[in-house]
């Protein structure tokens, strides 16, 4: 057993780190006795480095012997490390009594022999059992790594075979390592590593029990941990690869950093040490390597989970792309960073500028002309927001064909694939269309087509947590499928699964609670008018959900839950915040007032903040978020962190791109689906040292809806196949044959359009087609044409960016239809539900919290279908039903029986019983055969079995089913309609 204990792992690490040829740069084992605990330095290595590289300073600094001069220099060195951090001194050296002392020599550029010789003079030393404490001289830490005598990393080791793990190493740092000891002071090292033979964690600042350790694992099967290592222990990648001298030199020079953040509340600056996590280091290095090998003109999709540190990954990539070479030259002339998050915009600028080597080459493009000026002035890094891009591009006139660009896009699906993207391409490619007589109509069309394509002289680096199908095909790596089609997948991924399992983000679905809304509407008219059932149901739901009584009741539920379950239970160390997500701005304002009223009634000291855009009417007054809150909109993100503000009520704001670790609870009263559901609920997932869980109370969605939204993004997301470009030919043929326009008419319009004629010379050509559209004999034909036109524009605008070829005829149709579609009136679609709200009244509204549940996502790669290239336009015949039938449908889970526990019974009828029937194998087989008669027989059998299974818990329900023929018949119809008919549709 002694060969498998902690000491054996320590010996193994040192042995493997120091294994190298004498000619290679490598680690040496150090002497623990040379460590000076008071100054936290290996004095022997420091003195040796200075003597070898700057011999004229050895005597001046007094490093040859214990002397007042030596202590003076060491005190100066310690003071500067405490003030600026060891990374700063390694990069910049230290000045002392008129002397400049280099403490480290950076990696050389290719061909620079002198710099290579200097770099080779650095001393890389790994030392075992270092006695670090002045007050407790017997204490020793397992390993310390030094560069030229300055400690840069510490290690605590454990071994699973001896029943101790990485968590024990973390606990040892938190319990036994005093941050007041010089070695463990803030900024004295790059990081502190806790590891065993299976897992690795690190911390950049020791704070006793509050020390926050982050995972540094490679990941395995899209989840946490490390893959099996047939050649050694699972964690040897750390010391063999990541901490090899060349790799660690890159971290020192390009990643590790101390940044200052200003606390707006106290107006004080707080320092934070940054060290890359494994996935951040891995993606940046793989991207840089690919650029160095392939140059410009490529696309990369990075799928990194929300909250995984994309800001720093982008900053590190941006900084290093400025110096990356290809074929002996710089790979890019300029790097343009585009983000749609204003907060991140300023963070990126600050982070990138913190690297002093490039600080003077960074420019923020705020207004028209800035981008052109930045490129012309040779600015290496240009940062802007997508909101400003269209204005920035207006004034670009320089020819940039001979320049190479890196375009880094944060949350790619929000900012690409549109007309803005085409404008970016035209601007950077130097494509200009003017009125020169030599420029033909065909030249103009071809210039527009080229402008829409991905630039051959630019590389695109797209970062997103939730790639859509368009994003995958536009930026992803093509992968041949077994059936011969082409799919797409990300270049690099750090999945939601891994981030959750590692504890780096919270699992927002671990405590998801849907709220069933139950209504009882009574008919207020004696007659029984007919209405469009589908539209009527939507109006009824909107009416009930928007009713003041319903909002008041739901606000009480939210506030009471927040006070009792979040505040009283000291969530997030007593600092937890909550967000209320509403369906519209009017609802948002109503909720804000209702919540404020409930807080006052409960005599709570806490307050709510409201967030929405624009000015709106409320109770006859014009209101804005600023007028309601009492402070400017720009302060919302900071104010919610301060007491007494604890609840943020939002309408389409702060649902994406908002990172607040204090956000713990979310109350949802808005229908969510797809990417929006993932992005919205993910506002809760930011980790915090005191955050142990999150909570979602959902009034508008059910667990199945949320699961469907999250499943594609739990692991790596792939596109099953690319969009079929032939569908465009089909759409064009369908559009042309409807005789709304002629090819000559299209050509005439496009010529005039490109010649910049007056608007009164364009509208007559469009109006002629509008009239043809109106005179179509069938209303369905109008729906078909308009749907096909929209489908063509949507698909063509996307495919134009990714196809290697272009089509003049497609482009002309796109220009013509883009102007025609907005002029086409909506098909005659009479609202047959008009008036229904005048004929009903709200008899009762009850919202009941269901049991909290954990939604378990599918542990497999998520797959998205390609961009649809077909029209979705269709006009359905309205299903006319009697008002009484609509009301009954809306209230069918109550039935007409006096139940002992009505709410529980209606849940059984509406949810559990149909589910049990739908899962019955015999019934499923009958469905699959398409035989409704046999399916009804099997449905009734499955229902009988389901009722029998409930006999112990629901005696009254079972008795009614057995004895009440009317109820039994109604339930059989209801269950069959809810399962077979729904599936058949």
Would you kindly provide a written description of the structure presented here, covering whatever features stand out?
The protein is α/β, with parallel strands linked by helices and 985 residues long. It folds into five domains: 2-262, no CATH class; 276-494, Rossmann fold, CATH 3.40.50; 507-719, Rossmann fold; 726-823, no CATH class; 892-985, no CATH class. 42% of the residues lie in helices and 18% in strands. It is built from 37 helices and 37 strands. It has a seven-stranded mixed sheet, sandwiched between helices. A seven-stranded parallel sheet has the order 18-19-17-20-21-14-24, sandwiched between helices. It starts with 5 loop residues before the first helix and ends with a helix.
Instruction: Report strand %.
Output: 15-25%
Total number of domains: 5
Strand-pairing-aware structural class: alpha/beta
Task: Estimate percent helicity.
Answer: 40-55%
Secondary structure layout:
Blueprint (H helix, E strand, L loop, with lengths): L5 H12 L9 E3 L5 E2 L4 E2 H11 L1 H7 L6 H17 L1 H7 L1 E3 L2 E3 L11 H8 L3 E7 L10 E7 L2 E8 L8 H11 L14 E5 L4 E4 L10 E2 L20 H7 L2 H10 L2 E6 L6 E6 L3 H17 L4 E6 L5 H12 L3 E2 L2 E2 L3 E6 L2 H12 L8 E3 L5 H7 L4 E5 L3 H6 L10 E6 L1 H4 L3 H11 L11 H12 L5 E7 L4 H7 L1 E4 L5 E4 L2 E3 L1 H6 L10 E12 L6 E3 H14 L1 H20 L9 E6 L2 H17 L5 E5 L4 E3 L2 E3 L1 H5 L6 H4 L5 E6 L12 E7 L4 H8 L13 E4 L4 H12 L2 E3 L6 H11 L6 H13 L7 H12 L4 H24 L5 H13 L19 E10 L12 E3 L15 E3 H8 L11 H17 L2 H8 L3 H18 L5 H9 L1 H20 L1
Parallel strand pairs: 1-6, 8-9, 14-21, 14-24, 17-19, 17-20, 18-19, 20-21, 25-33, 27-31, 27-32, 28-31, 32-33, 34-36
Antiparallel strand pairs: 2-3, 4-5, 6-7, 7-8, 9-10, 10-11, 12-13, 15-16, 22-23, 25-35, 26-37, 29-30
Helix pairs in contact: 2-3, 4-5, 10-11, 11-12, 16-17, 21-22, 25-26, 27-30, 28-31, 30-31, 33-35, 33-37, 34-35, 35-37, 36-37
């Amino acid at each position: 057993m002694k060969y498998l204990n902690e000491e054996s792992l320590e010996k193994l690490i040192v042995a493997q780190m120091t294994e190298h040829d004498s000619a290679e740069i490598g680690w040496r084992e150090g002497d623990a006795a040379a460590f000076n605990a008071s100054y936290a330095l290996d004095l022997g290595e420091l003195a040796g480095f200075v003597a070898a590289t700057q011999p004229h300073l050895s005597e001046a600094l007094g490093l040859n012997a214990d002397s007042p001069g030596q202590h003076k220099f060491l005190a100066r060195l310690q003071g500067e490390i405490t003030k600026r951090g060891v990374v700063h001194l390694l990069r910049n050296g230290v000045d002392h009594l008129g002397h400049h002392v280099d403490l480290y020599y950076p990696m050389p550029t290719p061909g620079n022999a002198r710099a290579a010789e200097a770099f080779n003079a650095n001393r890389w030393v790994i030392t075992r059992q270092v006695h670090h404490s002045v007050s407790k001289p017997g204490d020793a830490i397992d390993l310390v790594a030094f560069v030229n005598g300055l400690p840069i990393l510490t290690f605590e080791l454990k071994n699973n075979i001896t029943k101790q793990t990485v968590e024990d190493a973390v606990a040892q740092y938190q319990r036994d390592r005093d941050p007041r000891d010089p070695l463990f002071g803030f900024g004295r090292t790059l990081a502190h590593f806790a590891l065993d033979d299976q897992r690795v964690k690190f911390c950049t600042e020791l704070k006793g029990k509050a020390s926050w350790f982050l995972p540094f694992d490679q990941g395995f099967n899209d989840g946490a941990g490390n893959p099996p290592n047939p050649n050694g222990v699972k964690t040897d990648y750390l010391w063999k690869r990541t901490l090899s001298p060349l790799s660690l030199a890159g971290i020192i020079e390009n990643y590790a950093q101390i940044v200052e953040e200003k606390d707006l509340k106290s107006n004080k600056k707080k320092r934070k040490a940054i060290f890359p996590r494994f996935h951040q280091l891995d993606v940046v290095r793989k991207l840089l390597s690919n650029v160095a090998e392939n140059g410009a003109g490529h696309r990369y999709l990075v799928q990194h989970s929300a909250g995984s540190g994309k800001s720093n990954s982008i900053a590190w990539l941006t900084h290093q792309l400025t110096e990356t070479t290809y074929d002996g030259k710089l790979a890019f002339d300029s790097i343009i960073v585009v983000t749609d998050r204003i907060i991140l915009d300023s963070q990126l600028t600050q982070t990138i500028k913190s690297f002093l080597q490039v600080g003077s080459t960074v420019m923020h493009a705020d207004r028209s002309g800035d981008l052109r000026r930045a490129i012309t002035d040779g600015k290496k890094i240009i940062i802007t927001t997508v909101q400003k891009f269209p204005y920035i591009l207006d004034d670009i006139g320089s020819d940039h064909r001979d320049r190479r660009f890196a375009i880094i896009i944060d949350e790619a699906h929000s900012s690409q694939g549109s007309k803005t993207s085409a404008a970016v391409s035209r601007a950077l490619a130097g494509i200009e269309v003017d009125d020169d007589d030599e420029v033909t109509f065909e030249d103009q069309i071809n210039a527009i087509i080229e402008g829409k394509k991905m630039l051959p002289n630019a590389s695109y680096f797209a970062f997103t947590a939730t790639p859509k199908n368009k994003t995958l095909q536009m930026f992803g790596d093509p992968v041949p499928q077994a059936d011969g089609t082409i799919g797409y997948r990300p270049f690099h991924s750090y999945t939601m699964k891994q981030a959750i399992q590692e504890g780096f983000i919270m699992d927002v679905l671990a405590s998801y609670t849907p709220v069933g809304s139950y209504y009882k509407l009574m008919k207020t008219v004696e007659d029984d008018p007919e209405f469009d059932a589908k539209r009527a149901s939507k109006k009824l739901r909107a009416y009930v959900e928007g009713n003041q009584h319903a909002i008041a009741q739901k606000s009480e539920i939210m506030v009471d839950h927040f006070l009792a379950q979040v505040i009283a239970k000291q969530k997030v160390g007593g600092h937890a915040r909550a967000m209320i997500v509403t369906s519209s701005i009017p609802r948002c304002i109503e909720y804000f007032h209702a919540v404020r009223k409930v807080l006052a009634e409960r005599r709570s000291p806490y307050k709510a903040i409201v967030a929405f855009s624009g000015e709106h009417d409320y109770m006859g007054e014009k209101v804005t978020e600023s007028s309601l809150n009492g402070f400017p909109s720009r302060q919302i993100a900071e104010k919610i962190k301060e007491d007494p503000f604890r609840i943020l009520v939002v309408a389409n704001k702060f649902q994406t791109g908002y990172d607040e670790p204090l956000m713990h609870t979310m109350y949802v009263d808005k229908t969510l689906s797809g990417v929006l559901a993932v992005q919205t609920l993910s506002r809760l997932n930011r980790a915090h040292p005191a955050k142990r869980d999150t909570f979602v109370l959902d009034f508008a969605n059910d667990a199945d809806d949320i699961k469907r939204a999250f499943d594609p993004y739990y692991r790596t997301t792939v596109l099953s196949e690319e969009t079929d470009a032939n569908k465009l030919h089909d759409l064009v043929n369908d559009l042309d044959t409807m005789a709304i326009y002629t090819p000559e008419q299209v050509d005439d319009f496009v010529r005039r359009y490109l010649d910049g004629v007056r608007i009164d010379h364009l509208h007559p050509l469009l109006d002629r087609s509008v009239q043809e559209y109106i005179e179509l004999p069938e209303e369905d034909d109008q729906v078909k044409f308009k749907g096909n036109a929209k489908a063509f524009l949507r698909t063509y605008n996307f495919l134009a960016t990714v196809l290697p070829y272009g089509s003049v005829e497609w482009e002309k149709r796109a220009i013509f239809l883009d102007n025609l579609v907005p002029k086409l009136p909506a098909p005659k679609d009479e609202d047959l539900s008009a008036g229904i709200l005048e004929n009903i009244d709200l008899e009762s509204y009850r919202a009941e919290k269901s049991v909290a549940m954990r939604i378990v996502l599918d542990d497999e790669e998520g797959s998205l279908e390609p961009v649809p290239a077909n029209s979705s336009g269709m006009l359905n015949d309205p299903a006319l039903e009697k008002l009484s039938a609509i009301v009954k449908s809306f209230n069918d889970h109550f039935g007409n029986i006096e139940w002992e526990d009505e709410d529980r019974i209606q849940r059984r009828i509406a949810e559990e019983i149909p589910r049990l029937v739908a899962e019955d194998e015999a019934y499923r087989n009958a469905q699959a055969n398409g035989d409704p008669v046999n399916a009804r027989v099997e449905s009734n059998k499955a229902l009988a079995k389901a009722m029998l299974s409930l006999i112990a818990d629901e005696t009254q329900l079972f008795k009614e089913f057995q004895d009440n023929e009317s109820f039994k018949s109604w339930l059989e119809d209801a269950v069959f309609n809810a399962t077979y008919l729904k599936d058949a549709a």
